[in-house]
Amino acid sequence: MPISPSYRPRSERQIRAVAKAAARIPGPLPIALPSSRRTLTRITSAMDAPLYPPARAFVMPRRLPGLLDTKDTAIADLKAIPQAWAVVKAEIPNVEARVGNEMIKPHLGNFSFRSLLQFGVVKSDALDRIDQKLKALGER
Q: Which of 9, 43, 97, 136 could bond to 14 as cystine, CB 3.0-4.6 Å?
């Protein structure tokens, strides 16, 4: 029986069901029970989604060859292509320190350099120069 923090039982039977479910879950998260004015303290906030086993037929997506740019190409994809990353490193000083933060590393496959423009990580004129040089590289 899934229990949310906002759940309010209406009858003694529901209270017993909640108490029984709460006994199996460690940790405190009080839920007020209006009919008896008692509080269950064993319900936890660890009501996360269940863990599912990995799909058997899952195939990791891969990037198809195409023109590279700083708007639509993820930073991780640029890092995976040595010629493209050399262009980026030449135009953006200390780029490794800017995108090498432990908090941002897992997300480099989702961010492009243009998406980081609003945070001041890179400057627009540098990205324009990178786009010209990446276009000269052709499809990758």
A: 9
| Range of the structural domain that residue 123 is part of | 75-137
Report yes or no on 53 lying in a domain: no
Please, what is the end-to-end C-alpha distance for the chain in angstroms? 52
pTM of the predicted model, to two decimals? 0.57
pLDDT digits (tens, 9 = 90+) for 42-86: 444 555 667 777 788 888 888 788 899 999 999 999 999 999 999
In a domain, 61, yes or no: no
Total domain count for the chain? 2
